[in-house]
Amino acid sequence: MTLRQAQDGTLRDLEQADAAASDRTDRGVAAAPVAPAARRRTLLVVAGGIALVVALACLPLLAIDIPGVLPGPTYTPGTLQLLAYAMLIAALALSYRMMFGLAGLLSFGHALFFAAGAYGLGMTLDAFAPVEWPSELIFLGSIVVTLVLGIVLAATVGSLALRVTGISFAMVTLAFAQAGSVLIRRNPGGATGGDEGLSLDIEHVPAALVGVVNTRNLYWLALGVLVLVYLVVLWVERSRAGHVAEAIRENELRVRVIGIRPYGVKLLVFIVASVLAAVAGMGYLLLQSGASPRIATADFTLTLLVIVVLGGVGYRWGAIVGGIVYTLLDQRLTALAGSDIVAGLPAVLRVPLSEPLFILGTLFILVVLFLPGGIAGIPQRIRTGRKQHPLEAEDTADA
Amino acid sequence: MSTVLLLVITGLGLGALYFLVASGLSLIYGLMGVLNFAHGSFLTIAAFIGWEVGRRVSDGTWWGLLVSALVGMVVGALVAAATEYFLIRRLYERHIEQALITVGLALATVALFEGIWGTDPIYTARPEWLTQTTEILGAKIPNDRFLLIAAAALVLGAIVLFLQRTRYGLIIRAGVENRSMVTALGIDVRRSFTLVFAIGGAAAGLGGVLASVYYGYVSAHLGSVLLIFAFIVTVIGGLGSLTGAAVASVLVAVLQQFANFYLGGTGDLVVVIALAAVLLVRPRGLMGKVA
Q1: Chain A closest CA to B136's CA: distance in Å?
Q2: Residue of B nearest to A163 (CA)
Q3: Same-domain check for residues A268 and A396
Q4: I need a surface site. Which of A17, B34, B110, B166 has the fewest CB within 10 A?
Q5: What residue numbers bound the domain in which A363 lies?
Q6: Which domain, by its residues, includes B27?
Q7: Under a CB-based contact definition with an 8 Å cutoff, are residues B10 and B141 in contact?
Q8: Residue whose C-alpha is closest to residue B32's, from B83, B107, B106, B73
């Protein structure tokens, strides 16, 4: 990869940050001076972000119809369901990007934690069902239990898998995810529903989150999950641990030489990303009123990888764009495949066009070959007018 | 005793199938550092085209099966070589992107196969003898296991002979050992990349046709199922080691059969645990070179 140019920059930043930090403590100054232009830019980005979230939050109250992109006007449950699903996938992709893009950990087991969130919440709700507590308490309690389970699972898998690196790491995570997938399909004690999937027991779920009428509440919930995941990812990336993780991605040996142990930082990033995936998984369970074993498979993780690369590994919002574009494309291409236009084509065109995954896969290959920055890298490429790796331009393109 | 023998021989048969896929994966990774997710697709396309040609020539006879196997090998080799030449080569030395390309290819091709041949398995006709069993020491063993074992042994022998006795084999072995040194000696290793892909593709293609004999059907997901186990085998055996892949194939498949029989169908789980255990105790695999 062409990360080499970026690596010196990142490490130098880290070393300077180190020096600056000790400087600051020496002089007793709390904050480093920030250039006014940069501060204005940050303010603009924050304001733009808030405006975007507010605009998205207003969507269920409006009747915007984009033919060909959305199945109907934005206030209809079908469209809201699709958009909410897209945002949850975006949140999941964001958590995966934190691991793959920030820390350089190529995991093939991320689906395991998404499934742990979805199945964990569903199974805890089932387990709590006979208890005579108020429903709200049971619902919140189940969420807390699932989160704790997610943390324990992530810490176990992470601490084992991170003992090896590179392809071996990918394989150990794949192995754990595969084990999880097999367990879910096996349906031990009738807890996971096997191949048919788990359906959500709505007895203790707040009434506002149940039913087609309340799809807009679920939409807001999904938006909330996406914003929460984004803020946590932003916080981790801006933190010292995030900088160290970035440096480890570029050159682990140099990080060791500086005197930092990579293991702890990698484990932290792994756990945070996995728990965020579990949070997205819980949202998925509530939105879909159930969980299917598909979300635990290695194919699902590969889809995440496709989403992150499609959107642009070098950009945080690339994962969000990728998740939303992928979900909408997948949905619309499926609709296209069933349409009369495609059915009327000769077999040579009809067969490939009726397979959404074929088109997405081909698109993905083309992006990897010709558009290394992904969708999010397009503005940067147009602006600079030359081939450039997104990571080299991260400072200017950070959003 | 007869149960144990049956499990061992069935395990060997399944291991033969794993080896046919894993040998190519291992060679490709060893020489080029590419984790080839599209390897399952090579197998599937070869199985489909081998079956299409075989049934037209002579359905359900030895002659038809032989034609299928030959066609499968040729198709596998051609598709693999084309993949390397048109897609992988463009991203020379960028391993992550190369792996990503193969991921995209695997997703796209499986969808395409589903579009062409449908999502349901297509049951195939086999020669009479392969559907019968042979009794050895009281164990009734399905005859197709012997075919699989013989084919895998032949492939192993052929690849070893090729690697040990030919000039190209020498270059490949040297390339796996230390690629930059081979390049420094003035040999263009990249030429052998296409060759390694073709060999791996041919082995996978034969594996595809034999898998359709073993399972009794062809389906668009034939390759993806075998690929995960082939990955596990490759990593346990040590990436880049052909002998390692052979030993690990047998170990994994036999272990799987025994766990399925004695531990209530937990074969998949046991294999996964074995992978985790091997990697944690010995990260480079059983016979892998030191990274």
Answers
A1: 34
A2: B280
A3: no
A4: B166
A5: 297-399
A6: 21-223
A7: yes
A8: B83
